[in-house]
Design goal:
Blueprint (H helix, E strand, L loop, with lengths): L1 H7 L18 H25 L2 H12 L1 H7 L24 E4 L7 E4 H29 L1 H4 L5 E6 L2 E7 L16 H14 L6 E6 L14 H18 L7 E6 L18 E7 L1 H12 L16
Parallel strand pairs: 5-6
Antiparallel strand pairs: 1-2, 3-4, 4-7, 5-7
Length: 307
């Protein structure tokens, strides 16, 4: 009996149930990812600021101050200091006529601004001289243009390379009182336009006439209108030669105000077209005049009386 009771004894199994963690979402993962992204963007910004030259920073600031200049002149910015000719604005760290520049790996060195500006000017003058030589070689190599060489004047001025095409008694550029370019002058202007496509400098076109007045006087169509129309007609021929239209900064008619032959105001040489390949100093001067407000006029009460 004892053996049977032992067999009938129930077996008790105890199961321990462990308590689970409270339910939660994954919001912390999104917050952490945003934090890591923000830190990466911050360090990237610090790296860019550290590797950007002061000239580039100045160029960015100048763009928002005068965007017209950068838009017309092109380039990374008006203060771009990484190019020999373009840019090179004043450095914000300069002291006493010198600037300190360097990168992260190289020690900073002092650069004399006057010497740097002089070197830039020499490089630009050399480039304009190459353009002058190229034009002369193109004219000598062409039988069609070689006969016009006596009417072409090339010289260096304070504004840059000046290409003048003067009139001739037997071979005028235009008919008297007309702004229609003669066929043989079209070839010359188009050839010059093709050459000037290879340089980035902006251009000024000037029309000149002699001092012979129109029959209607200065109140009607005069030498002023004629010189401007002739300069504009020459601009169109340069465009036909391949020159981009945004390369022309100014087109102006000067009538007989700046004669080529001062001793003979009615000389055919005074009737001419001037194409000026502007240097950077001349470009800056034009932009500065266009952007800067005019100087305030002095009060008449404070000005000295005329005697």
């Amino acid at each position: 009996m004892a053996g049977d009771a032992k067999k009938l004894q129930p077996i008790i199994v105890k199961k321990v149930k462990k308590g689970g963690h409270a339910a939660h979402g994954g919001a912390w993962k999104i917050a952490y990812a945003d934090f890591v992204t923000a830190m990466m963007a911050f360090f990237l910004l610090m790296w860019l600021l550290g590797s950007t030259t002061e000239g580039d920073k100045k160029g960015i600031a100048d763009y928002f101050g005068s965007p017209l200049k950068v838009a017309m002149a092109g380039g990374a910015g008006s203060g771009d200091a990484s190019h020999v000719v373009k840019g090179g604005g004043e450095d914000l760290t300069r002291s006493g006529g010198q600037v300190k520049r360097g990168d992260v790996d190289a020690p900073k060195k002092t650069i004399n601004l006057a010497a740097l500006k002089a070197e830039q000017k020499r490089a630009e003058t050399a480039r304009l001289q190459e353009i002058k030589n190229t034009i002369e070689q193109k004219i000598d190599a062409s039988e069609k243009l070689r006969g016009l060489s006596s009417q072409i004047r090339l010289d260096m001025t304070r504004d840059g390379l000046r290409i003048q095409i003067v009139d001739d008694q037997n071979r005028p550029m235009f008919d008297s009182g007309s702004a229609v370019v003669k066929p043989y002058m079209r070839d010359l202007l188009r050839e010059i336009g093709a050459i000037l496509t290879e340089v980035p400098n902006l251009l000024t076109l000037e029309g000149h006439t002699d001092a012979t007045p129109f029959s209607g006087g200065e109140r009607g169509y005069s030498n002023w209108e004629l010189s401007a129309d002739r300069a504009n007609a020459s601009r169109r021929e340069l465009m036909t030669g391949g020159l981009s239209e945004n390369r022309v900064l100014r087109v102006q008619g000067l009538a007989y105000s700046q004669p080529f032959d001062r001793e003979g105001p009615t000389s055919p040489a005074n009737r001419r077209i001037s194409i000026i390949v502007m240097n950077r100093e001349a470009e800056d001067r034009v932009f500065r005049t266009a952007v800067e407000p005019p100087a305030a006029e002095e009060d008449s009460a404070s000005s000295p009386a005329a005697h």
